[in-house]
Design a protein that fits this description.
Helix content is 57%, strand content 6%. The chain is an alpha+beta fold.
């Protein structure tokens, strides 16, 4: 069950291979689409509704920063230098939108009492702590990423994904120019962590989120894997591991599943602790039988694929008794990715099929070649659909690269 000593070197060897640059490569086209959509600010054009013929008016800073993470993951896997400037611009933009955030001694003492876990009177508790300045302060060495340079929009998931993006970029390039931001984002994320629990949604909240807990867990797990001597993340990871695995051990959560599985896999790669393997296996069983698949049938499901592919990778490499489960996982991945791949807009596309004999013609389709649609008959694109599909395809390709040498190298190319 223990991994090869050369795990990290194995990852870097993959990065050093010839870049994936073929114009007919779906992952490359998805990455190109995201790069083309980047704005000078480092953000991205959020999406487009082809039926309305207009850009989507909504926006989401967590998804915006998540695209930098997805591009960094692609860069780490492919070594394709064409995406490097976009990652740098995205990280710089996230840095510009980061604000200081820290906590004082009294706040730390209060958090350690467990009062933030009380089930009743939470709204009044939050209000009282906020009035007393005990939910954080706008000073210190930590930073949190915002959409408008105010702590009101400083969601934990945004800072977690910014940290993940920087870590993957650093791992691929060894470019240390963002080291100060890395340290500040780590401290900001740790400030949002509640002892013996997960992460607060935002500086002025005492609530948790399955999404942000999963993203935060993965960010700290990945940081600890790259910097094992740093005590900052190490000091809380054991308790965080235990809390999140207990909280989600028998719970199906579409929001948490893929992030949590990737986090547990990273922790397993670091520690060889069988409890993470058990968690990944049980989460995969729950995910396969989850109720969300029925409602997800008309939609892009690439996000869930990230978790399923990761589970297959770990279980086939480290759990000889999972053959039946991994076969089921492979079948689900095959079926869902067959649907998902058809959602990618091909080069030169002029129309979308909306039904058996119904098509939508749009001159804007060519501008979004390589992007992924929301669903088979849902004529809109959004950056997170494309980002998650890029990540799923990268993971599938990375798995195929290492499959032939699995018995010799264990999880050499993971995470």
């Amino acid at each position: 069950m223990r991994f090869a000593i050369g795990l990290v070197l194995g990852v870097l060897a993959v990065v050093a291979q010839t870049p994936v640059a073929a114009s007919d490569d779906p992952a490359r086209r998805a990455a190109d689409s995201l790069v083309r959509s980047q704005l000078p600010s480092g953000l991205f054009t959020y999406g487009f509704d082809f039926l309305a013929g207009a850009p989507l008016q909504e926006d989401n800073i967590v998804r915006q920063v998540g695209i930098v993470y997805f591009l960094a993951e692609f860069y780490l896997h492919s070594g394709d230098e064409s995406v490097r400037p976009a990652i740098q611009t995205g990280l710089s933009g996230a840095g510009t939108r980061s604000v200081p955030f820290g906590k004082g001694t009294l706040q730390s003492v209060i958090e350690h009492t467990g009062v933030l876990s009380l089930p009743a009177g939470r709204s009044k508790l939050r209000g009282a702590l906020d009035r007393l300045g005990l939910l954080g302060r706008s000073e210190g060495d930590g930073k949190v990423v915002t959409s408008d340079n105010t702590s009101a929009t400083a969601f934990a998931g945004t800072t977690a994904l910014a940290l993940l993006a920087e870590l993957q970029y650093y791992r691929a390039s060894r470019d240390d120019r963002f080291a100060q931001l890395r340290s500040a984002w780590l401290k900001g994320l740790l400030t949002l962590h509640v002892p013996r629990r997960g992460f607060r949604l935002a500086p002025r909240s005492i609530e948790e989120s399955d999404y942000f807990n999963g993203e935060g867990w993965l960010a700290l797990a990945y940081y600890q894997r790259l910097f094992p001597q740093d005590e900052a993340a190490k000091s809380i990871l054991s308790a965080l591991d235990a809390y999140l695995m207990a909280r989600h051990g028998e719970q199906e959560s579409e929001a948490f599943y893929h992030w949590g599985t990737m986090a547990a896999a990273t922790r397993f790669a670091t520690t060889s602790d069988a409890s993470f393997l058990k968690f990944i296996k049980r989460q995969a069983e729950l995910a396969l039988n989850a109720s969300w698949w029925k409602s997800a049938a008309p939609y892009n499901t690439c996000g869930a694929m990230e978790g399923l592919v990761t589970a297959v990778r770990v279980l086939e490499s480290a759990d000889a008794g999972s053959e039946t489960l991994t076969q089921r996982l492979r079948e689900r991945i095959r079926d869902e990715m067959k649907k998902n791949r058809r959602l990618q807009i091909p080069p030169g596309a002029e129309r979308l099929q909306l039904g058996r004999d119904t098509y939508l013609t749009s001159p804007h389709l060519k501008d979004y070649a390589g992007a992924f649609l929301e669903g088979p008959f849902l004529p809109s694109v959004r950056i997170d659909y494309t980002g998650h599909c890029l990540s799923a395809m990268v993971k599938l390709e990375r798995y195929r690269l290492s499959r032939s040498s699995r018995e010799r190298n264990g999880l050499q190319n993971f995470p």
